[in-house]
Amino acid sequence: MHLLFVEQILNGLQLGIILFLMAAGLTLTFGIMNLVNLAHGSLFMLGAYMGVTFQLLTGSFVLGFMFAGVATFLIGLVMERLVIRHLYARSHLDQVMCTVGLVYVFNEATRMAFGPEPLHAPVPALLSGTVELLPGAPYPAYRLAMIVAGLAIGGLLYGLIARTRTGMLIRAGASNRVMTSVLGVNIGTIYAVVFGLGAALAGLAGFIAAPILTVYPGMGDNVLILALVVLVVGGMGSVKGAFVAALLVGVIDTIGRAYLKDVMGLMLSPVAANTVAPALASMLIYILMAVVLFFRPEGLVPAAGMRRPEAPSEPASDAPLGAGLLARWRVPAIGLLGGGFLLLPLVAGLADSPFWVDMGVRVIIFAIAALSLDLILGQTGLVSFGHALYLGVGAYVVGILADKGVESGVVQWPLAMAVSAALAAALSMVALRTSGTFFIMITLAFAQMMFYGASSLYDYGGDDGMHLSVRSTFGGLVDLYDATQFYYLALALLVVLAGLNIRLARSRFGMVLKGIRVNERRMQAVGFSTFRYKLVACAISAAVCGLAGAMLANAAEFVGPQFMDWTRSAELMIMVVAGGLATPLGAVVGALAYLGLEKYLSDLTIHWRLAFGVLLILLVFVGRGGLGALFAPAPGGETVPAHKGSFRWARPFFRPRA
Amino acid sequence: MGEAILQTAGVTKTFGGLNAVDAVDFTLAPGELVAVIGPNGAGKTTFVNLLSGALRPDTGAVMFEGRDISRLPVHARARLGITRSFQIASIFPGLTVMENVALAAQAHAGHSFRFWGEVAHEAPLRRKAHAQLAELGLADCADRQAAQLSHGEKRLLEIAMALVTAPRVLLLDEPMAGLGIAEARRMIDFIAALKGRFTILLVEHDMEAVFALADRVFVLASGARVADGLPDEVRADARVQLAYLGAEDEDL
Ligand SMILES: Nc1ncnc2c1ncn2[C@@H]1O[C@H](COP(=O)(O)OP(=O)(O)OP(=O)(O)O)[C@@H](O)[C@H]1O
Ligand SMILES: [Mg+2]
């Protein structure tokens, strides 16, 4: 037992070291460039792939190691030059969207280059044996070497930052950006080097971890989320905090998984312990994060010298490309959209493509989910990156109730809404104590926590999810097994919710949300308890998303943790942004565009995610304001003549006929 | 000092070793206009933040009508009637001028957990906002986007947002900062008109304005109180000249 315990502690340290190498780069880029880089996990993956490939090629582990570091450093430099550099001055939302686009691109490019099968990473012969740390407790030499190597890299990093001239500049840049650039230091070069350095650390971490993990496209994403937890726990921008938090998270996670069942067995019945412990163990670090945040919203070791500016910098307000371009077609476009939705089942029947109706239901469900996200993201300006959580919660409520024999939608659906709202209220109590980047990462981490929680519901399918035994019944009024009836029910709900959304935006409450988005500090100074309003907005939003989840469970006849995967949250966010923030129609257009494009591209090629990632990046740089902006009335209420500005060439196409 | 409406006792705020506000005792009597002056970085804005609740004091207490409010958050103090303007004009740029003021009025007209009725149709709010804008000469811009206002108009708008809440204490952090001569004049006249009707704490660098407006002048330097008295006394005070006026001679 004791020996085993030592072994588990070592395993925990080894996970912690990997997390530290990941988090170090993240925390540097955040502290110095104020950048949220969700593509950091991709660098982890690239380091693993590149290093292992080179190792297999040359037969040398050391060469593989060096190649992983150098290659990811260079990739980091290129990435910084081409994309990242243009994000520093952008909003966190833009940064999130764009780096998610990069994740799509990297993951898919890797799949294309290396195939979907996992790559086997050999352990070097020298380290393939075991070491007897304590008599009778052999421990794999490689894992021990990982800890040593990780500590060595961490030490080098410390030396670099604390002792060298470059390090001095990095520290100066972190504490006072303006000053450093005034002093004539080329701040752009420092940024590039820091980013490359972070990339190399992630790449090395990926390579070191490759032999004990599975090397597959997307392997970095889970590590990234753990690293984000580390970042939040440690305090963003603080390398020291990242180190402490990484070891803490690594050890707690490992020990929790190993011993929680035994500990809980002391208090609960074995059966209860067996069901609860695995779920709790996988949620443990997220709970740790919540507790830390509750008492220390800045993290354990808040970065020194990060001064909040007195006034929020006003966002650059260049109009999105082509804004108002199609303004004169606003009404016809809305008519077309409405007509299309209304007549879809009819058209599908005529075209003998019943599949269209199912697709339509899907679009409507996601439009409702996007609409709910827009309430907090678009109207309140809270960048929530875990909204799919409530899609999942709503679905599970329906799934579990159906399993227990409660089949009435009149019970299931409101309950799905209530549970989602209650959960959102509880989680937001913690999440709303933070703001900005912290908020993004916490919502993401909470969603991930529930994802793992749901994956451990072994009675309800665990990882695999479960089949929905029966669709919700509505006392014979609506039959969800009839595609057309389901479609019109969903459409009616969408119309009602969109109407409520418009009303709400114009109400007192909506005005408060708008004020919070524009200038929260002013709202407080004027006497609004903004926390309470945000809390209620989160709960309402979650309730509506829970409803979408309940419908999704019925449409898919399936309930699973996949519903709350972080990529789902990203999808919802993309829909809202693509359609246009803070416009009820935007959510609908966004859902339609996203799912339509997904369908179209995925029919075209299995590597559609690559194209999708590129489109996403373009959306951030070119399509600000989303599709909705194309149709938006120009500021001041007048429509822009179609031949103004850079779209002069399009004049002949858009000139109305006399 | 029984009649003080706002009072501090030994408030201190430290930023990483630097005492931005250092054991300051301060009182503000109802109806009084006190100017707080001091060189750049003296801690004036930090002091205003301590009064408004944006910062919590490390030690010492802030009292409002004899009640300790040191731990109350900003919005709660605003509801008690402590309202402020910011050194860097802080408005809602994306909203119209009317909406800016109506939103401020809304904060003091019952709760805002109302999800249905259109706020634009709430006559009392609009009426109040309109009267306030008229008083400041902004009635003509009511329907313009706040972002399009001139710098001086933004400052006035900010004060309109504070006044519409019928504040008990008005904290003005450099309302003249960045204004042209004509606009500054307009602002001085306006503040002079407020004098007596409201209790005002005015942070200001413009000495002409300070000595024209203030009943009392409170001098901060390096976070600590250097002098507190009638304008003429303070002007004559050798310590003030040393700590402040001497250093800022060229500004006078
Ligand atoms: N949030 C903060 N973190 C760290 N230091 C701060 C912070 N706010 C203020 N300071 C420091 O406290 C001191 C006082 O600042 P403050 O802004 O209160 O001065 P001030 O008198 O308002 O100056 P000014 O006339 O330039 O407006 C300054 O040295 C400033 O750098
Ligand atoms: Mg100041």
From TrEMBL, chain B:
Classification via InterPro entries: AAA+_ATPase, ABC_AA/LPS_Transport, ABC_transporter-like_ATP-bd, ABC_transporter-like_CS, BCA_ABC_TP_C, P-loop_NTPase
Pfam families: ABC_tran (PF00005), BCA_ABC_TP_C (PF12399)
Keywords on record: ATP-binding, Nucleotide-binding, Transport
Alphabetized CDD domains for the sequence: ABC_Mj1267_LivG_branched (cd03219)
Keyword Transmembrane annotated: no
One MF term in the entry's GO annotations: ATP binding
GO CC annotation terms, alphabetical: plasma membrane
Limits of the ABC transporter domain: 6-247
Family: Belongs to the ABC transporter superfamily.
Protein name: ABC transporter ATP-binding protein
